[in-house]
Design goal:
Blueprint lengths: L7 E8 L3 H12 L4 E5 L12 E2 L1 H9 L3 H7 L1 E3 L1 E6 L2 E2 L3 E2 H5 L8 E3 L2 H14 L4 E3 L2 E13 L5 E10 L5 E11 L6 H6 L3 E19 L5 E6 L4 E8 L2 E8 L12 H12 L2 E18 L3 E2 L2 E3 L5 E2 L7 H20 L9 H26 L3 H35 L19 H6 L23 E5 L3 H11 L2 E5 L15 E5 L5 E6 L4 H12 L5
Parallel strand pairs: 1-2, 1-12, 2-9, 5-14, 12-19, 21-22
Antiparallel strand pairs: 3-8, 4-8, 5-6, 5-7, 10-11, 11-12, 13-16, 13-17, 14-15, 15-16, 17-20, 18-19, 21-23, 23-24
Helix pairs in contact: 1-5, 1-8, 8-9
Flavin-adenine dinucleotide (FAD) binds next to helix 1, strand 2, strand 10, strand 17 and helix 8.
């Protein structure tokens, strides 16, 4: 930084130090990418806000060496307890559903303020800090009038920040990431449409103490014809109560008083509480940014998508986007890959955001529908069939539901360097089941991912084959015993070597012994500019 002029030059400017921006900053620090992170606030959020940390986000914390603190401070929710009105149908244990899929098969309750504090501390340990009290006022993209080496025009961003001492500070960066939340200034400046709807219902959130009427240490989910209640154990005897109210429950000025909400949860669900540490209400929006990349600028987290909190996916999706983008930025800035590598961020993550917004919007619509059929389902069918459903669901769809909620099932559609679908057709898809997904966990293959470097993995493949392929591709080799698989079904084959990206996603399978066209295909998968 030039102290006299207050101007800063860096590779990456991150605007916003919520969970998404902080995750990006921590990953970039670990990957050796020069970056600065600024936030208009004077410190991390003190509100609990998002609560659930899903298994995939736990895996990221593990990769960053932060998992021990999360495990020590979290409140695990090992089960879900569905019910109707004052009644619970029984409990569905998560642990069995996620066994063998991930080292973290619970839902971790670790509130947003703690996530932010964890990441701020990790950033400090890496010798970096957030520039708090720095608000982005203006952002311009400069065309540099020369090519970037692969035919595209090089550009840079120039940002004007209002600093706490009343002076204006200029930042010049190669790339800018808008992690600045739902009202993103970065997204707005770039003119990226934020398409979607604002729903008509009001959500309430109360972090309550001394709560009665719920199954302890489980996530409670209750319906009545008119209402929904979700309750998350927060640890320390506190419970997050979250529900929807209709306009008839609001005061004349459109607000909901906590007293009114307290009467409602008692009347509808038989749930009472003595006090609350936080009570708030908000309208739900379902919106998705039309682009996640615009030249040298990107949007992540709430700046890219917002939706209802049902399913506890919002913060987690932002954390994973930030992780994906950090790895892509490192490939380009440190690893020397072409700028087009960064196009994979939008190609991979926007479809995930689109599915999330569409699914939560549809679910929210079904939960709140006023149709006679929906009211019949909530008021009559669910109370009658729920107890049987609780017993059947884990058997019929439990592991699939766990996969969606935990975000471990996400699959990116990859294309090779020539733009062809790398996986097309059912048989090919079955053969390359591991390509485009996060590396399946075998019990002992995640420790090596902590290096956050490209690697090849062989499971039961001769060591010399793995070493040679790694040498040819210029990446780290890792040799493991054969995969015994989940429930006796191996996911990683002993006649394949897997190319694994910094973020733990499998980019290619190379048939052992890995020569000729097979090796060329893996090389192409490393540098392939497009996906989608
Ligand atoms: C009441 C409430 C309850 C919620 N409950 C849940 C839940 O149960 N589960 C769940 O998954 N999600 C929940 N969410 C959503 C969750 O909080 C968000 O998904 C998450 O915070 C997104 O993180 P982010 O880093 O993308 O954005 P944010 O957390 O919004 O962070 C954006 C940051 O950018 C900064 N900023 C904004 N503009 C500028 C600017 N011009 N210059 C500099 N800095 C700027 C802000 O100060 C802020 O720190 C809840 C949200 C709210 C409000």
């Amino acid at each position: 930084m030039d102290a006299a002029s207050g101007s800063i030059t860096t590779d990456v400017l991150i605007v916003g130090a919520g969970p998404s921006g902080l995750m990006l900053a921590v990953c970039l620090a670990k990957l050796g990418v020069d970056a600065i992170i600024v936030d208009a606030k004077d410190g991390p959020t003190r509100e609990s806000r998002a609560l659930g940390v899903q298994a995939r986000s736990m895996e990221l914390y593990d990769q960053l060496g932060l998992i021990d603190r999360v495990l020590a401070e979290r409140a695990p929710a090992a089960a879900i307890a569905p019910g109707a009105g004052h009644r619970t149908f029984g409990t569905i244990e998560f642990r069995g559903l996620g066994d063998g899929i991930t080292p973290y098969p619970d839902i971790t309750v670790f509130e947003q303020s703690r996530n932010e504090r964890l990441l701020v501390d990790a950033l400090a340990a890496a010798g970096r800090e957030v520039l708090w009290g720095h608000r982005l006022e203006r952002l311009e993209v400069e065309r540099l009038g020369r090519e970037d080496g692969v035919g595209a025009e090089a550009s840079a961003v120039v940002a004007e920040l209002a600093a706490p001492d009343g002076v204006s500070r200029t930042v010049r960066a190669r790339y800018c990431v808008g992690a600045d939340g739902a009202h993103s200034r970065v997204r707005e400046t770039l003119g990226i449409p934020f398409e979607g709807v604002t729903n008509e219902y009001t959500f309430y959130v109360a972090d309550a103490g001394h709560v009665t009427g719920l199954v302890g240490d489980a996530i409670n989910l209750r319906f009545t014809t008119e209402h929904l209640l979700l309750a998350f154990p927060m640890g320390g005897g506190r419970v997050r109560l979250l529900g929807i109210v209709r306009d008839a429950d609001l005061d004349a000025d459109g607000s909901l008083r906590e007293e009114r909400m307290r009467e409602l949860v008692d009347r509808e669900f038989g749930v009472e509480y003595a006090e609350s540490a936080w009570f708030t209400t908000y309208r739900v929006h379902h919106r998705l940014a039309a682009r996640f990349r615009d030249g040298p600028c990107f949007v992540v987290g709430d700046a890219a998508h917002i939706h209802s909190p049902v399913g506890a996916q919002g913060m987690n999706t932002g954390l994973q986007e930030a992780h994906n983008l950090a790895c892509a930025l490192a490939d380009v800035i440190v690893g020397g890959m072409p700028d087009a590598r960064l196009d994979r961020y939008e190609a991979e993550r926007r479809p995930v955001g689109a599915t999330l917004v569409a699914t939560t919007d549809r679910l929210f619509g079904e939960i709140t529908s006023e149709s006679r059929f929906a009211r019949f389902l909530r008021g009559r069918a669910l109370p009658a069939l729920g107890p049987v459903g609780v017993r059947l669901l884990p058997l019929v769809a439990g592991r699939r539901v766990f996969g969606y909620l935990s975000q471990t099932r996400i699959r990116y559609q990859l294309r090779d360097a020539a733009g062809r679908g790398a996986r097309s057709g059912g048989r090919r898809r079955r053969r390359e089941a591991a390509v485009g997904v996060r590396l399946p966990w075998t019990g002992d293959n995640y420790d090596v991912l902590r290096s956050m470097q490209w690697q090849v993995h062989g499971y039961g493949v001769p060591e010399r084959v793995v070493l040679r392929i790694a040498r040819e591709l210029g990446v780290e080799p890792h040799v493991f015993p054969s995969d015994r698989g989940v429930r006796g079904r191996p996911q990683l084959r002993h006649d394949r070597v897997y190319l694994v990206r910094r973020d733990g996603f499998v980019m290619a399978e190379v048939r052992a012994p890995g020569v000729g066209a097979d090796l060329d295909a893996a090389r192409a998968a490393m540098f392939a500019p497009t996906a989608g």
